[in-house]
Amino acid sequence: MNASRPPAWYLVSLRAQGDHRALRRAAARHGGGLVALSPWRLQPRTDESSRQVLASALRAPVVLFTSPAAVRAAAGLQPLQARAGQHWLAVGAGTAAALRRAGIANAIAPARMDSEGLLALDALAAPERVGLVTAPGGRGLLAPTLVERGAVVERADVYERVPLALPAAAIARLESLDAPASIALSSEEALRLVLAQLPTSARAALQRMPVAAASQRLADRARELGWRRTVVAGSPRPAALAAAAAQALQG
Fold first, then answer.
1. Domain stop point among 94, 127, 161
2. CATH number for 99
3. Are 214 and 241 in contact (CB under 8 A)?
4. Which residues of the chain have pLDDT under 50?
5. Side-chain half-sphere CA neighbours of 42 within 13 A
6. Residue 3 included in any domain
7. Closest among 60, 236, 70 to 152, alpha carbons compared
8. Which of 161, 188, 212 is the last residue of a domain?
């Protein structure tokens, strides 16, 4: 996008503080700008207890990572190295790429990049023990379903989502955009935290925007929260979200 030309549209990002760069670039490829509404920041855990819990989880026959942030935080606690016979799983392609960068060459990600897609993988059909590397909150479907299937789940929370107050300037900008906007949605929890902080007028402005949801489940949650226009990107990756958001506005 030409830097001197105003954006034709905006993508509203609910990602963590400092984690908007990829979405900004993806929106720019479609002529869009970015509005950042970060409801939290990500804080890795560095204490000895977290290190020990992670070490135990990484010895499980199946090791499952729920985000690129989980990979980065885990690698900060100890080097990641696959053992013979282990299955290392990632919730999506971005998390699998983070694992490859951390030294896990054979990480597996589902074609459907959400909890349901992950749970459909053969390695999770009837696991005995699963190391779940994640953060508190989010992806509530995984652990209960694995327990129902007979697995012992060793959970290692290696980072935290620390809530942030939305800046007044960001809220004001949301209400005064000079072009159409769409929302990139990859976390129900993030959306709820943002909504809880918005005054009535800003909330109404947000809910007039179409939602580009990473999954059908998230599209359904957005409709339950009051959105009428949703599209499913089929992936939480920035390129997919930005393309779906641009398409939603054209439609």
1. 161
2. 3.40.50.10090
3. yes
4. 1
5. 21
6. no
7. 60
8. 161
